């Protein structure tokens, strides 16, 4: 529209995700599997490890969060061309035992429900599946304030948005979630409802059907 296209010629149909699968492992069993203490709080990053995702920014941010919440662990799930450089960066800036690179996995559905918060630090996105999947699992999200994330996350209601590379705002938002269990539960429950009401496969198919009929 900003480039002169008529608004009435544009139709936006959001992505959809299936309902979250319940994990087949308890939180304690998952922590044992990952050799992480049972009192740990888990921050997750899920996605392909390439520059767009700005995972380096998130590792820097974690260094601020761990000062406030020493039991946190950062789980980086995914693989890609940046992995070697990110692992080296994590070794130089953090306790490498606290920043875990889990690689590419086909069982994120087992891990996702046990996260205390999901981070998305991307500089640009379409509509990120990892954010949708976290919300579907009832996990609060802190994400960059970019269009794809802005379409999903309602600040203060289903999670928080922060400017790209703003470590301080990411830390403040994460601190709110980790410091207040009731607030975190409320965010997660609202996020799950939002996905169930607005981003189901059935609703997406109906929207495509409506578009073709028109």
What is the element string, with H for helices and E for strands? HEHEHEHEHEHEHHH
- How do the strands of the widest beta sheet line up side by side? 3-2-1-4-5-6
Structural class: alpha/beta
Residue share in helix: 40-55%
Counting copies of identical and different chains, the oligomeric state is single chain
Unreliable stretches covering 5 or more consecutive residues: none
Shape label: globular
> What integer is the average pLDDT?
95
Total beta strands: 6
Instruction: Compute the number of helices.
Output: 9
Radius of gyration using CA atoms only: 18 Å
Largest sheet: 6 strands, parallel
- What is the distance, rounded to the nearest whole angstrom, between the alpha carbons of the first and last residues? 21 Å
Determine the strand fraction and express it as a percent band: 5-15%
Notes on the protein architecture:
The protein has 214 residues and is of the alpha/beta class. Strand 2 (72-77), helix 3 (83-93) and strand 3 form a beta-alpha-beta unit. It is 43% helix and 14% strand. Helix 7 crosses helix 8. It contains nine helices and six strands, in the order αβαβαβαβαβαβααα. The protein has a six-stranded parallel sheet with strand order 3-2-1-4-5-6, sandwiched between helices. It has helices spanning 27-33, 55-68, 83-93, 108-111, 129-136, 147-150, 167-179, 181-198, 201-213; strands at 41-46, 72-77, 99-103, 117-120, 141-144, 159-162.
């Amino acid at each position: 529209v900003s480039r002169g296209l008529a608004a009435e010629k544009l139709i936006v149909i959001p992505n959809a995700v299936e309902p979250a699968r319940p994990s087949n492992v308890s939180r304690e069993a998952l922590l044992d599997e990952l050799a992480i203490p049972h009192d740990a709080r888990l921050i997750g990053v899920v996605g392909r490890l390439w520059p767009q995702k700005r995972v380096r920014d998130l590792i820097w941010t974690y260094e601020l969060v761990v000062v406030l919440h020493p039991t946190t662990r950062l789980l980086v799930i995914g693989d890609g061309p940046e992995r070697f450089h990110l692992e080296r960066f994590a070794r130089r800036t953090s306790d490498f035992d606290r920043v875990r690179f889990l690689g590419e996995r086909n069982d994120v559905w087992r891990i996702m429900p046990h996260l205390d918060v999901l981070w998305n630090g991307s500089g640009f996105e379409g509509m990120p599946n990892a954010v949708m999947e976290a919300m579907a699992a009832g996990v609060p999200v802190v994400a960059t304030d970019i269009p794809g994330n802005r379409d999903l996350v309602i600040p203060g209601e289903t999670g928080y948005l922060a400017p790209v590379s703003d470590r301080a705002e990411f830390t403040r938002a994460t601190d709110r979630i980790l410091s207040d269990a009731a607030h975190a539960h409320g965010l997660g429950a609202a996020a799950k409802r939002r996905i169930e009401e607005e981003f189901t496969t059935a609703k997406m198919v109906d929207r495509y059907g409506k578009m073709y009929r028109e």
